[in-house]
Amino acid sequence: MAKPPSSRSLSARVAEVDASQHSVRVVPRSIRPPEDGEIRLRLIACGLCGTDLFKLDNGVAPEGAVLGHELVGEVESVGPGEIHFDVGDRVVVPHHVACGVCALCLRGSRTLCPVFKENLFDPGGFSEALVVGPRAVHRAMRHVPDGLSDAAATFLEPAACVLRGVDKADLTTDRPVSVVLGAGSMGLLHLLVLRAVAPEGLVIVVDPIADRQRIAETLGAQVAVAPEAAASAVHDVSRGLGADAVFDTVGGAALLRHALQMTRPGGVVVLFAHAADGETADFELNPLFKNERRVVATYSGTLEEQGRIAELLFRGTLDPSPLVSHTLPLSRMAEAVEMARRREALKIMVVPG
Ligand SMILES: [Zn+2]
Ligand SMILES: [Zn+2]
Predict the structure, then answer these.
(1) SS3 letters across the chain
(2) Does the predicted model carry a pTM greater than 0.90?
């Protein structure tokens, strides 16, 4: 008699890290059946994220690892135990989930929880099938409603990261002026999240690439300019006051200095991006101190932010699907990495095949 599907391994193609080439190679792999509290998914789509590229570029990703965490999948089989999902359900789920009960979680620093960085995907999102661990299944997995596209749903995780930073900026004025440094997919996602949560606000986007400036304006930026024109754009839009918040999606000390100069007294710079390894910041302290400026860091996102983003996505208030510039099959994953590296693509969505 044939065994039920959940007790068999599944053969799938995965894009695994080829560390010596700073790239990935597509190989077959056997994906184990789900155990207690686990779910095995078939890949529907997974976004290629700047963090994935960072890990490849900087040799942080170990040989043979499978990256990918902006995932939409279909439940293929469920393990034993109490699980509130059925075979065939379309779901989103993050790979990092806090425990919810440790000292850091209880103080609101859930993305710094000691178990948060544990990868709950076996092996990862760039795989035709994967097993999702119990903590992610029980605490973080969500059904995707019928009306929501796969493309939009893949942004649940990254948009939650953006929302966490936007919360930290504490934009309490009526018509906040925000600056977003960088119009890559994360920069433009900042623009869209800001437009969704503070529709009265004005957003200035700064990026050297003219095409991206145009996209930013199409997506609702008040103005999008090259870095040389940023100071005067901030001056004009804020009527000489300076920006309430600057969101740095590019990273690095030089940009931080510029970002601080763009803020109004009492304004904030939100650090959203990696700097180079070992890089230190160097800016004048008194203008920060005497003007009550703030520099805050934000890392990843939590279930709480994911819940609020899910609402915005499900209601259609937030629709990041225009950011998907390319949809490529998993077999062309190495090409996807190259395109993202050369900044020829905004967001690449990887699908099976
Ligand atoms: Zn990501
Ligand atoms: Zn914790």
Answers:
(1) CCCCHHHCCEEEEEEEEEHHHCEEEEEEEEECCCCCCCEEEEEEEEEECHHHHHHHHCCCCCCCCCCCCEEEEEEEEECCCCCCCCCCCEEECCCCCCCCCCHHHHCCCHHHCCCCCCCCEECCCCECEEEECHHHHHHCCEECCCCCCHHHHCCHHHHHHHHHHHHHHCCCCCCCEEEEECCCHHHHHHHHHHHHHCCCCEEEEECCCHHHHHHHHHCCCCEEECHHHHHHHHHHHCCCCCEEEEEECCCCHHHHHHHHHHEEEEEEEEECCCCCCCCCCCCCHHHHHHCCCEEEECCCCCHHHHHHHHHHHHHCCCCCHHHEEEEEEHHHHHHHHHHHHCCCCCEEEEECC
(2) yes
